[in-house]
Amino acid sequence: MPKTDVLSTRQVAQLLGVGEATVKRWADAGEIECFRTPGGHRKFRLRDVTAFVQGRKFEVQGTLPARLSSDASEEEGAAVSEFETSALAGDASGCVAQLAAHRLRGESLAAIFDDVVAPALVSIGQRWQLASLSVAEEHIGSQAVIDAIARAQPLAEPPGEPNRAVRGAAVVAAVAGEMHDIAARMVACLLRARGFEVLAPLAQTPARDLADLVLRCRASIVALSSTVPRDLAELSEQVGMAARAAGQSGGRVVLGGVGMANVPLPEGAELLRSMRDLEAHVGGARPQRH
Ligand code: B12
User: How far, in Å, from the CA of 247 to the mean position of ligand 1?
Assistant: First the structure.
């Protein structure tokens, strides 16, 4: 089994939203499988954690969620609607369990974000637009997704070791006026897992503040998101400021989201379409420690 499928007690605790002492108690009681390192630390296989999450403790209904696969769109649709159902029930634990199960099948978290989480949110948005969901229901769904992304951090990280940032700082934000920050949260999660020290002001970050932050932390990467189309001149100015600030410390800017589609790209900026593109951009392999 690849090492990336082994989690520490801390990571399992984060994943399940409980304290480390609780995880240790469950492990010692045999409720969740674990093994010990030569140093005596408990380690957990992702599949055992998933089995536990899907078991009685978190009351996730049914078996593993539908499989993700590019040539099985029907199953992919089922995976999306299962995720959407859990989100709309406010069941962040159920969402996490599904993310864990897809990871368990070997999907990257980036791919799961692109193929399951984002489409589930689009569907929620469509239902809200058609008034088949109330604003309150939409808010419950998006909040469950936000909670699940936070708790999914261990699924993104190469597990089993403490995360020591060695690739410099990353600033992750949604552009000025943009309240949609779920894509930015996904980006933050993935960059953190790749060894960046992430500063994430997220929603509605004013252009000037963003540029100051980029300069102050000498960001090596700045990720900006715009979920909805907005004033192109303002957007272009904001992206330009971020690119100039990043350029001063040799950093680069990556942009994403439908709202960024037509923005002119300054030097040092690149438009990415997806979380998969982001993974490819920053490289899958974790850097060497020193
Ligand atoms: C959740 C949600 C909200 C939440 C946001 C909560 C939050 N913290 O983010 C709340 C309730 C606050 C909200 C508010 C509003 N919303 Co809203 N919202 C949504 C919803 C359902 C999901 C948005 C989302 O998170 N999508 C998931 C992300 C991950 O998807 P994505 O942005 O496409 O990102 C993918 C790629 O583009 C890429 N990507 C994106 N950014 C980046 C960045 C980088 C660096 C990289 C590498 C990749 C990348 O990767 C992602 C994964 O594949 C959408 C539905 C939809 N179709 O998206 C409506 C939607 C976006 N909202 C809409 C509207 C109208 C509004 C409001 C104006 C409603 C109102 N009247 O108040 C306000 C706008 C507030 C503002 N000023 O921004 C409309 C926008 C229509 C339009 N095109 O103009 C939508 C489309 C709903 C609809 N069907 O009508 N919303």
Answer: 29
